[in-house]
Amino acid sequence: MALSFFDQFMSPTYLGIPLIALALTLPWVLFPKPAARWLNNRLLTSQGWFMSRFAQQIFQPINLNGHKWAALLTSMMLFLLTLNMLGLLPYTFTPTTQLSLNMAFAVPLWLATVIIGMRTQPTHALGHLLPEGTPTLLIPILIIIETISLFIRPLALGVRLTANLTAGHLLIQLIATAAFVLLPLMPAVALMTAILLLLLTLLEVAVAMIQAYVFVLLLSLYLQENV
């Protein structure tokens, strides 16, 4: 039973071929492509409105040099949001529950922001390692602490996304199993458990959206420090 709970996080294979690549390409198939017409339908209009509002909110505190990242971060937001939402459907696989995939997203983007800061303003970028007014005796210790915290950032990005989605999926499966087992024994308790499962599912929908937003928001904050 313990192993079956974690089977949902195993990458599915078919004839020895991992299907995670198919799961990663599915979100791009679902989004409609802009047409050459003057007037778009409601779906394209709402999609464009959402992307423009999101980019405006994220990049408002960032100077013009960082606006080159607008397309990348907006696409990442839509990609993670779609993956998280599709993973809540029955009999589906959520790629963002894999720590390796989330780290593959987090490390290159974080490293790109650090490299940009080192190239454009190295003094300001290195200045984050030592706060102003630090006593002389604490300078070596603070430099070590700030350096460690700098390198922990991509790990925190990946682990946060993985842990929140994994915990939510496990909790949903545990409560669904409890409702199924209690149904023939105590129908009233099973009904209450099913209502709790419905509320938890709604909460997981919110968590899926919030975690995608937090992932991109933290990347934008890292970018803001280095441009």
UniProtKB/TrEMBL annotation:
Subcellular location as annotated: Mitochondrion inner membrane
A GO cellular component entry from the record: proton-transporting ATP synthase complex
PROSITE patterns tied to this protein: ATPASE_A
TM regions (residue ranges): 12-31, 69-89, 101-118, 138-159, 171-199, 205-223
Record key words, sorted: ATP synthesis, CF(0), Hydrogen ion transport, Ion transport, Membrane, Mitochondrion, Mitochondrion inner membrane, Transmembrane, Transmembrane helix, Transport
Gene Ontology molecular function: any one: proton-transporting ATP synthase activity, rotational mechanism
Topological category with respect to the lipid bilayer: Multi-pass membrane protein
UniProt catalytic activity: H(+)(in) = H(+)(out)
SUPFAM superfamilies: F1F0 ATP synthase subunit A (SSF81336)
Quaternary assembly: Component of the ATP synthase complex composed at least of ATP5F1A/subunit alpha, ATP5F1B/subunit beta, ATP5MC1/subunit c (homooctomer), MT-ATP6/subunit a, MT-ATP8/subunit 8, ATP5ME/subunit e, ATP5MF/subunit f, ATP5MG/subunit g, ATP5MK/subunit k, ATP5MJ/subunit j, ATP5F1C/subunit gamma, ATP5F1D/subunit delta, ATP5F1E/subunit epsilon, ATP5PF/subunit F6, ATP5PB/subunit b, ATP5PD/subunit d, ATP5PO/subunit OSCP.
Family assignment from sequence similarity: Belongs to the ATPase A chain family.
Listed name of the protein: ATP synthase subunit a
The organism of origin for this protein: Satanoperca acuticeps
